[in-house]
Amino acid sequence: MTATHSTRMLILGSGPAGLSAAIYGARAGLAPIVVQGIQPGGQLTTTTDVENYPGFREVIQGPWLMEEMQAQAEHVGAQMMWDTIVEVDLSQRPFRLVGDGGHVYLGDTLVIATGAQAKWLGLDSEQKLRGQGVSACATCDGFFFRGKKVAVIGGGNTAVEEALYLTNHSHDVTLIHRRDSLRAEKILQERLFKHHGIKVLWNTEVAEFVGGEGHQGLCALELRDTRTGELSRLDVDGGFVAIGHHPATELFKGHVDLDEDHYIKVEPGTTRTSVPGVFACGDVMDKIYRQAITAAGTGCMAALDAERFLAEADFEAEAIAAE
Q1: Taking the CB of residue 119, how many other CB atoms lie within 10 A of it?
Q2: Which of 105, 106, 263, 269 is deepest in the core (most CB within 10 A)?
Q3: What is the DSSP pairing of strand 245-247 with strand 116-118?
Q4: Is pLDDT above 80 for 46?
């Protein structure tokens, strides 16, 4: 049986951004509803060791951190809904969203925190060794490869930036690119080519991520020459896939303004989108930092922006009613 759920603040997404928005919205008395989506907890639920989230002396587990965030949001008054939104109408307030089971969600404000997913090569061995030497975030996981041999796969800005970043931890970094030239900005390419700690393998692709015998974890990459098909092996301890991200914005095309990479556009310094009363936070609007802590920070911003929007709207409504 379908139902209609109404709230002052409707939040779509339940990663660090969405749950932070929920905590702040609930503490402001807005009784937010969080529609959790197809991956409750966001990308951190697939992350094992987390060492860079403030407040924890020891390494913590990503799923545990998200469980604690959700429990905190519920404790202060947020309501969690297990649903996947398939239809949105942002043409008027309250905004109307429909779940795949027919439930309707009405929000005086909407916070979009649907995140972004890293693009992967699509290899079975890549999936098997994710979190065991294979990563899509050097900033998140590079620290665990101090003094070890690592490789970065890709040829754009992200790949070059990650290769340069990894030199802070490793003296042996290899950039693997399937073509004979990079797509990255020229200034990044210049920094890369001048760095003595980085080697570049041109016209090369990863055919397989190889796990070590007798123990789990990446130990090598099987490489294929894209011109000749010849196979070779590169011994590494870490492999970082850096071929871009997919922001989860398909649902909002034609409803809010997106940039050329399909991330939601927001006013600089705010989380305000092109639709008054609709706010975006986390990786769905941030293609630069993409960290749990920055997502949580923009979630806080979105809740505060939404609270101010509602206060102004209420003031205007009262002024009109008094005339």
Answers
A1: 15
A2: 105
A3: antiparallel
A4: no
| C-alpha 283: how far from chain center | 4
CA dist 6 to 10, 72, 79, 97, Å?
A: 8, 22, 11, 10
Token digits of residue 80: 């969690």
Phi-psi region of 70 (alpha: psi -120 to 50; beta: other; left: phi over 0): alpha
| Residue 286 backbone phi and psi in degrees, to 5 | -120, 105
Which residue spans within the chain are E strands per DSSP?
Answer: 4-12, 33-35, 49-50, 60-61, 79-81, 85-89, 95-99, 104-112, 116-118, 134-135, 149-153, 172-176, 198-201, 204-211, 218-225, 231-235, 238-241, 245-247, 278-280
User: Do 190 and 206 touch, CB atoms closer than 8 A?
Assistant: no
Distances (CA, A) of 195 to 166, 184, 189, 272: 12, 16, 10, 40
* Contact in structure between 42 and 34 (CB atoms under 8 Å): no
For the annotated catalytic residues, the residue numbers are 137, 140-141
Distance CA 35, CA 249 (A): 15
**C-alpha dihedral (263, 268, 270, 274), degrees to nearest 10:** -60
- Residues 242, 159: Cα–Cα separation, whole Å: 5
CB atoms inside a 10 Å sphere around CB 126: 19
The DSSP 8-state label assigned to residue 119 in this structure reads -
As beta bridge partners, residue 150 has 173, 238
pLDDT in tens, 92-151: 999 999 999 999 999 999 999 999 988 999 999 999 999 899 999 998 899 999 999 999
Q: Does the pLDDT value for residue 215 go beyond 80?
A: no
Query: Strands 245-247, 95-99: parallel, antiparallel or unpaired by DSSP?
Result: unpaired
Cα(225)–Cα(179) distance, integer angstroms: 10
Torsion of CA 74, 78, 81, 86, to 10 degrees: -140
